Amino acid sequence: MAVLEATRAQLAAELTEARRQSEILFSVLRPSYLYERPISERHRVIFYIGHLDAFDYIQICREGLGRQSSEPALDALFQAGIDPDSENLPADLPSDWPSLERTTSYVRQARRAVDHALDDAPVDSVYMALEHRLMHLETLAYMWHNFGHEAKIAPAGYDAILPSRTTPANSWRKVPAGEVTLGKPRDGSFGWDNEYNEHVLDVPAFSIQKYKITNGDYLRFVRDGASLPHFWTEREGRLYYRGMFEEIPLPLDWPVYVTQREAASYAAWAGKALPTEQQFQRAAYGADGRLYPWGNSAPAGDAGNFDFKRWDPESVSETPCGKSAYGVHQLVGNGWEWTSTVFAPFDGFQAAPSYPGYSANFFDGQHYVIKGGSPRTAARLLRRSFRNWFRPEYPYVYGAFRCVES
Ligand SMILES: [Fe+2]
């Protein structure tokens, strides 16, 4: 019982911190942009202000404890948004949405109900709400990245970017043949449906690049005819990087953020391949059961660029103490890493009854596994069994890569 109470107190503290991070994120946008839609296939910002707390309320109070909502219409609106009439892009108008005052009062009420329910709710419903919020903190950062800089105000503590203009030399690290563990055991700790079951596989020997592919590396591919990545822009013959709060001359030593298709094309152009999910996992965690590439200590800023440490990447040669047992750097943080593995269930997959579509809606052969984490990935989501997935041409994610050879 004492352990469970400690867990709940810890969870409540994490939820408070995640709410604080969401306040920071929404306060970065100037108020006149809160009814805008920076990515045409996503909702307007106002939806997400209500969505995070609607999800918490629905999972914890309604699904978890069977409570009756006093705001069922707003729960439904902020759970799913306004349906597009067909397969077209959303066509709702700002005037279709509740006012900011109405939305924030709904949020306050949902939070009060959630806070009162935390001691009694099924603990998995609280984990689900917390991790859902944390994942949105990252996907919302992708969205904000697509607002012009005039829409945003850098928060207190933001450090202007000081990139280097040299490309660090990359090299190859050998990973011997051996076992790798994928997935997560059903041991009572929280995981999403796609993380189960745990299983062990044999991986043949391969070599993998020490660093992620940089903007400087990718520039040679662009000079050979590839198109510019979404995060780059060209003006008067010069290349710039579109950072979250400023545009800077292309930082050659930062990881390049690209689509899975661009990453695979680069690898083919270089005569190499993208790692499979199994190869990534083996390069990062080896066979000794470690929790993180660097060992078992909890994620800290000197081990990588994650957990909201920065709003943009940093050099691929930073945080060397986060390297894996095989000497591979930044496998976690500073940009997710694309794999060549199509997102599919592990043996033993079971959808969660309270969120059945979380993964199952994406087992369509049209999504690829991406592993690791970005500057905007919360520490809690850096566990080794955590999987993320996107379409191969979705350009907005903080998706980096490196190559392997067999
Ligand atoms: Fe959501």
Do you know the CATH topology of the largest domain?
A: paralog of FGE (formylglycine-generating enzyme)
What helical percentage do the residues reach? 25-40%
User: Strand percentage, roughly?
Assistant: 5-15%
Broad structural category:
alpha+beta
Q: Please trace the helix and strand order, writing H or E for each element.
A: HHHHHEEEEHEEEHHEHEEEE
How are the strands ordered across the major sheet? Answer: 10-9-8-11
Secondary structure topology:
Blueprint: H1 2-28, H2 45-65, H3 72-80, H4 100-117, H5 123-145, E1 172-175, E2 178-182, E3 199-203, E4 206-209, H6 215-223, E5 232-235, E6 238-242, E7 247-249, H7 260-269, H8 277-285, E8 336-342, H9 357-360, E9 368-371, E10 388-390, E11 399-400, E12 404-405
Parallel strand pairs: 8-11
Antiparallel strand pairs: 1-4, 2-3, 4-12, 5-6, 6-7, 8-9, 9-10
Bound molecules: fe (ii) ion.
Fe (ii) ion is lined by residues 51, 55, 132, 136.
